[in-house]
Write a structure and sequence with these properties.
about 80 residues, about 15% strand, Thiol Ester Dehydrase, Chain A, alpha+beta
Length: about 80
């Protein structure tokens, strides 16, 4: 199993009034990492849609928030299949 890792910098726009990453922002991080993972495999989602009528849809997400991330933190989003 090969692990894919994608670095994410936390921007001010990702945080809430308390200065921590807003819970829904993590979903954006995950979506961007998924796109970059596919791209690293040579799979461009727009090409797959236009050429082969293939679309990717998220069916289920389960998240446990273990530790807050804050403005300017550097995160590593990882994925494995």
């Amino acid at each position: 199993m090969e692990l894919f890792s994608w670095p994410v910098r936390v921007y001010y726009e990702d945080t809430d009034a308390g200065g921590v990453v807003y819970h829904a922002s993590y979903l954006c991080f995950l979506e961007r990492a998924r796109t970059e993972w596919l791209r690293s495999l040579g799979l461009e989602q727009d090409v797959l849609r236009q050429r082969d009528n293939i679309l990717f849809a998220v069916r289920h997400i389960d998240i446990a928030y273990l530790k807050p991330a804050r403005f300017n933190d550097q995160l590593d989003v990882t994925a494995a299949v």
